[in-house]
Amino acid sequence: MTTKMRYNCATCPGYCCSHSRIAVSEHDIARLAKHFDLSPAEAKKKFTYNYKTKEVDEQILRHQKDHIYKTICRFFDTDERRCTVYEARPNVCRKYPYGNRCGYHEFLMFEREHQGDDEFIPSA
Fold first, then answer.
1. d(Cα 69, Cα 88) in Å, to the nearest integer?
2. How far apart are CA 11 and CA 53, in angstroms?
3. Higher per-residue pLDDT: 97 or 36
């Protein structure tokens, strides 16, 4: 039984790509390295940084400035509002939103309907 998706990423300004910690695995880094014809070590240095606390030790994708969110994934095209490495995207991105519903998409569609504006983007 296939579950119908209840969201459309093409109508979203990239909310999930604005998460401050987009953790990647060594496998994800290798996939990105292959995509850019780099060594895994080069890709790791260029595209990620180490985030470490008492509880967490992760490689995180670097961000860039964004005109909608303060920052967004470095692989996100801020004009087209699309992922530029979709075929090579990390597993966490492939799995998001972990089901057939996206709470942000539902909130966005609710706000757009009530604002009477198909392009409305709620701001912080």
1. 23
2. 35
3. 36
pLDDT top residue among 65 and 112: 65
Give the domain ranges of the chain.
9-115
In the chain, the amino acid numbered 44 is: K
- Token pair 């991105």 is found at 93
82-100: average pLDDT: 89
Structure tokens at 17: 């790509």
CB 7 within 8 A of CB 106: yes
**Most confident by average pLDDT, 87-91, 104-108, 117-121:** 87-91
Name residue 89's amino acid. Answer: R
Q: Give the HSE-up count for residue 70: Cα atoms under 13 Å, Cβ half-sphere.
A: 3
At residue 57, the 3 state secondary structure works out as strand
Distance CA 54, CA 72 (A): 25
> What pLDDT is recorded for position 122?
75
